[in-house]
Amino acid sequence: MITLIHMAEGKPHPSSTKTSPRSRPPRPAEAARYACEQLASLIVHEPEGVSGVTRDEDGWVVSVDVLEVARIPDTTSLLATYEVRVDQRGELQEYRRVRRYRRGAADDC
């Protein structure tokens, strides 16, 4: 059994009472959750959501959107997308910021 500690509160994470699913390869939703939890423990900003999950030969690549600078009005806040790689067990392998943008800004197509 794995006990996860919620970094902001120092309390056991709600999912820590379950038996770890890491004994098998994670599903896309699990890989995304693991990526968000592990990224949040390394950077000072909380993830807002996941914008992509891709399977690769070593595990998963998860695009995690993070609020980096909150502003008023909210449409001027700065967000970033981090590329987070987790292995077949859901363990963090690497992460990097790949994009920084203003909330509501359209993608260049």
Automatic annotation (TrEMBL):
Identification of the protein by name: Gas vesicle synthesis family protein
Domain of life assignment: Bacteria
Region of interest (Disordered), residue spans: 1-30
Taxonomic lineage: Bacteria, Bacillati, Actinomycetota, Actinomycetes, Kitasatosporales
Chain intervals with Low complexity compositional bias: 13-22
Listed GO biological process terms: gas vesicle organization
